């Protein structure tokens, strides 16, 4: 089976980017080990602190963030990082050529129940003009990403990654510590009968979403003429992995509860990297009002509504926004 290095070379990734990705993944392998130790290593449960977004941090959020921060800072390739768990950007090497954004442990509430969690990341070039501690350098649309992916800590530790030449999925071979290419060039089926949305939020949704999900729930008797199934992992990384593997639509839409938070998911750490993976696998990624990867970020922790998945299903969903039917 092909190794990660050869696939990255085959896809034309520059050497420095390959070295950076390998460094980042070394950190993820350490997270994978810590996660697998669970209660034995005393890493489960919450800390007494909150992140900048007011969310209680799990011990594994803090540990994973520290591992990635230390690994990337020491690498020399990175000018600055932005993390879901950091208040502002973390300056690294002023001469570094890349910026890295990450959610160190997506779905961390799943740690308590030994369910799916993962690390999500994206990489862009560092603009030459920027100072290493300047957050504005991160305010680039997703179209500027040179690589993005996630590492899923599940029954197997898996990596999904793109450098803009298709989406490839690798499995960590723990016997020698390398990621092996197990699912080359994945293609998301264009049609689906599976959706993922937290329906407990229905009363807070806008009309297009209520109407669309209503039609899916109506099944064979409704306008869609087929029965749909629903799945919800409560970790975007798990839901998106399922969609990449067998199709589906994943939504975390705009929510009327708090207009200052248009959706729950973060643009830089969650929506953009997943959008890049999805588009490279033939799927779509939209806010309901435009392509996610074209959203111009205004601040590093910005949230955005997300609709990702099978091409035809996402297109159908978007017609509800156009006509507000
Ligand atoms: P946590 O990392 O705080 O567990 O949040 C995970 C997440 O941001 C995303 O991965 C999930 O899709 C979403 O939240 C789940 O949110 P619900 O609380 O609505 O299930």
Properties at a glance:
about 325 residues; alpha+beta; Fructose-1,6-Bisphosphatase, Chain A, domain 1; D-Maltodextrin-Binding Protein, domain 2; eight-stranded mixed sheet; five-stranded mixed sheet; 7 helices; 15 strands; about 25% strand
What does this structure look like?
This protein is of the alpha+beta class and 325 residues long. The protein has two domains: 4-183, Fructose-1,6-Bisphosphatase, subunit A, domain 1 (Fructose-1,6-Bisphosphatase, Chain A, domain 1, 2-Layer Sandwich); 194-323, D-Maltodextrin-Binding Protein, domain 2 (3-Layer(aba) Sandwich), CATH 3.40.190.80. The chain has helices at 4-10, 15-37, 59-75, 207-217, 236-246, 267-280, 311-323, and strands spanning 46-50, 56-58, 78-83, 90-91, 98-106, 117-125, 145-153, 157-162, 167-173, 178-183, 194-196, 229-230, 249-252, 284-286, 306-309. Helix 2 (15-37) packs antiparallel against helix 3 (59-75), helix 4 packs across helix 7 and helix 5 (236-246) packs parallel to helix 6. It is globular and about 60 Å long. The model has no long low-confidence stretch (mean pLDDT 95). Bound molecules: 1,6-di-O-phosphono-alpha-D-fructofuranose (AFP). The site of 1,6-di-O-phosphono-alpha-D-fructofuranose (AFP) has 12 residues, from loops.
């Amino acid at each position: 089976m092909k190794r990660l290095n050869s696939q990255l070379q085959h896809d034309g990734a520059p050497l420095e980017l390959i070295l950076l990705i390998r460094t980042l993944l070394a950190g993820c392998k350490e997270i994978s080990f810590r996660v697998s130790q669970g209660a034995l290593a005393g890493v489960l449960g919450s800390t007494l602190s909150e992140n900048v977004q007011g969310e209680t941090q799990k011990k594994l959020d803090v540990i994973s963030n520290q591992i990635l921060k230390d690994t990337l800072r020491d690498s020399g390739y990175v000018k600055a990082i932005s993390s879901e768990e950091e208040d502002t950007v973390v300056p690294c090497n002023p001469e570094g050529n890349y910026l890295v954004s990450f959610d160190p442990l997506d779905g961390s509430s799943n740690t308590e129940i030994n369910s799916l969690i993962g690390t999500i990341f994206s990489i862009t070039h560092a603009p030459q003009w920027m100072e290493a501690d300047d957050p504005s350098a991160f305010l680039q649309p997703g179209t500027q990403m040179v690589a993005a992916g996630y590492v899923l800590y599940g029954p197997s530790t898996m990596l999904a990654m793109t450098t803009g030449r298709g989406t490839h999925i690798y499995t960590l071979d723990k016997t020698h510590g390398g990621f092996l290419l197990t699912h080359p060039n994945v293609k998301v089926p264009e049609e689906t009968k599976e959706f993922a949305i937290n329906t407990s939020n229905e009363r807070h949704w806008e009309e297009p979403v209520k109407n669309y999900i209503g039609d899916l729930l109506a099944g064979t008797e409704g306008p869609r003429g087929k029965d749909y199934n629903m799945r919800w992992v409560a970790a975007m990384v798990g839901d998106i992995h399922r969609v990449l593997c067998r199709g589906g639509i994943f939504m975390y839409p705009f929510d009327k509860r708090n207009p200052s938070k248009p959706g729950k998911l973060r643009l830089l750490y969650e929506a953009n990297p997943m959008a890049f993976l999805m588009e490279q696998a033939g799927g779509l990624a939209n806010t309901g009002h435009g392509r996610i990867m074209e959203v111009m970020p205004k601040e590093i922790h910005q949230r955005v509504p997300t609709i990702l998945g099978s091409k035809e299903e996402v297109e159908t969903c978007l017609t509800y926004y156009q006509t507000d039917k």
